[in-house]
Every structure is written in structure tokens, then in C-alpha cells.
């Protein structure tokens, strides 16, 4: 099976502007009858939620660095596994992270490298707020910029340019005149102008945008799709997804290997609600492939997880929902009972915080949590950690190195952990960082979000523990 027609949206546009453009494009494509497979470049959950809402299906996260060795087959397999039924023509729409060439050292793992290695054309966004001729210089820079990795993987290709944050008709005319010679040299079209006045307003908080699920269906996707159609040449963009470099001869993907490890089908209870929404879309599918049955539950609303063999608590915003999480004493007691019964429990970032004794919010108010881990954390108002992470079991487990990402504002406060840490940690440059996390008996937790395609050995080990435990009833 080949990859579907695709494009990657990236450039100079602001974080919210880029997401807004991607939402509007997805809405326009769906209005024309296309199925859209949404994806986000990099380790982002919040933008992914907005894209999933617009597309009506889960959003993939595509990250070269976190895949580890030989990333292209892993990413291609993830895309293929997420493809909707073949009853509709599917288009893969990827929203970039940060700017086009921003990534690790020398632009590695950037949107541009992802596009080059997957042979996906780029729809370049140029933020034109307060500029005209300068936008031509910016566009030319994006189209000609050179980095060392291009000698091996080739240059990315482009399918067109859109100017965002435009103003009056005169402003658009000045932009078109300035960009014309640059785009002519690169045989690209100016695909449209998106005025600042028409863009959707996406609310933000300290980690970026507010989650899509928190404000429900407040966006009018039909109107957004029409706004995009009215201001952009969607036909030219669609043509670029098919004729962009390499798209007409995408290599066939290798046959998918079975990963199943258990015939007993352990039941994995996965927390999912507004407080715990930072779960990669590919993870439930991976747990299923490893022989598990995934059942979702809400720590905010349910009194207990479903009968299960293991519990996974993903990241999220427990500090924003500390009051209702603290008030749900039945759920906290149920999780404590499962921990005492030996059920494997694994928490990441927000899930780690929920397993602790308490969360102190930014106003100094302390809220009781599960108390399974005898620590507490405090929201500091300052970024505590950010970056790619390569980790290995600090206890010497033999599953080797796995990869993930760390991004949080909370810090552990009080006494030092009485148990050995879960992970030895290195950043993407190979620098050793302070060991972190919690491991005691059946409970594992840390700040790091593991990336499914880069952490299969860990999940295989954890699922074996779940299979051995069987299903626990409360």
C-alpha cells in the first residue's frame, strides 16, 4: 500500500495561526467530500486535538527523532494503520511544529526533514502582518535554505504559498507583486491570502492552546471551510498534493508484522477526559496489537476504572481540574485499591502528578490526589523541563533504550524520593540528565511521555506484566 496524497503546512506563521489554517483547510476538504487523515509534526497533543475535531478522526503524531533508528518505515506504517476505509479519497494533512526548519541541532527532526524523508510537499505559510516586500525575502529564504542533512535526504519540495495575517486589498496587491518573481523562479503559485480578521480565535494557556474538548464544538467548521475556499485556491493545493516531488511514485510499504504477546487479552484501563487527554493516538492501537483490550474511563466522572489488568494514566491538565479530581474520592480510593492489589499502574506527567499525594496549584492551594506515590508537586509558573529524552531503565531492566519527550511546569517538592528512580535520562544531544521517576512494585511513573514508535520494548514489557496479573474486579 502506498501513502495517500499529502501536504505539510509550515512556515513563519504563529502557533495559533498555523493551527487555524490547518483546521480551515481540513474543513474545506471535508466539505468537498474528502476524508482527511490529520497529523501533527512533533510531540504535541493540544494542536492534535483541534485537528482531530476538525477531521472527525484521531490525529497522528509524526516525529523522526522519537522513532529512533530507521524512522521512515515506522512512520509510514503508522500512517497506513490509521487510514480510513477506502470508500473515500483520503488526504493526509500534517500541521508542522514551530517554524519549518526548527528542530533539534541543525534542523534535525524538523518539519522540513520529515517532509523530505516522507516525500511530502510543503504548503508554505508566510506571516504577512505589517510586511510586504519583506515577505518575498522570507519566502525566498524558506525555499532556498540549506542544511547539512539535505546532502543525505534531499531538499523538501513545496506545493504553494499562502500569506496569513493579511489586511486590506492594497496589502494583498503589494504582497502579490513582491512575491511574483520569487515564486516564478521556483515554479510555485501564490495559493491565497488569509486575513487576520477572518481567522478562528483559538484560546491559549501556559502550554499552548486550550484543549479542543474543553470548549466543545464552538468552531463553525462549515464556515471555516468556506472562508478557506473563498480566500485560497484549493484546486491548486490539491494538485500539489499529487504532483509534489515523489508523491507519484511512493514506495510500497513493508507488510506489517504481528506484535501480539498474549492470548489472554489483558484489559488496559486508559484514563481519558479533559484532565487526561495527552495520549498519542497510536498508543491504544499499539496496546491492541500487543494483545490487549483497551477500555477508557474518566477520573473526573467515573467512580472506578473498569475491571482491568493494568491502568495507564496519560498526561494532561490535572492542575486545571484539581478541584473535581480531589472531590472524586471514590475514584481515588479505587485506584489505591488496585495499586494495593498489585495491578500494574503507569503514569506519565499529568498521570504521575495524579498518583502523588497532592498538587499545589499556582495560587498556593493544595489539592489531595491519589497518594499512591508519597510525593507532592507544585505548579511553579515557570517551565520546569522541555525537550526530547532518551531513557533507559534505572533498575537495569533489559528492554534497552526508549524515546520520548518531556514538557511540564510542575516540580516535585518536599522530601527526596525514598525509592530508586524509574529512568536514567539523556537529552537529544546525548547529555546525561538527572535520573527521574518512580518505580515501586507494580507502580511506575515519570514526567516523560513515551512515543509509541520509539518505545515498543517498554510497552511489550509492561503488557507482559498486565497479562500475568489477569483481570482485577473492584
Would you give an account of this structure?
The protein is an alpha/beta fold and 474 residues long. The chain has helices spanning 15-31, 46-55, 64-67, 71-81, 111-118, 133-144, 150-153, 169-185, 221-231, 234-243, 282-289, 322-327, 329-340, 350-355, 456-469, and strands at 6-11, 35-41, 60-62, 90-95, 122-127, 158-166, 190-195, 204-205, 208-209, 267-271, 293-297, 310-313, 345-348, 356-360, 366-368, 373-379, 385-393, 401-408, 410-413, 423-427, 432-436, 438-440, 443-446, 449-450. The strands form five sheets. Strands 3-2-4-1-5-6-7 form a seven-stranded parallel sheet, sandwiched between helices. Helix 8 links the parallel strand 6 and strand 7 (190-195). The longest helix is centred in the first third of the chain and has 17 residues, at 15-31. It is elongated.
Measured by DSSP, the beta-strand proportion falls in: 25-35%
Helix content: 25-40%
Q: Uncertain spans, ≥5 residues at pLDDT below 50?
A: 244-255
Q: How many beta strands in the DSSP annotation?
A: 24
- The structural class is alpha/beta
Distance between the termini: 45 Å
Shape: elongated
Overall pLDDT: 89
With helices defined by DSSP (H or I, 4 residues minimum), what is the helix count?
15
Largest sheet: 7 strands, parallel
What's the gyration radius in Å?
A: 23 Å
Strand order of the largest sheet: 3-2-4-1-5-6-7
Oligomer: single chain
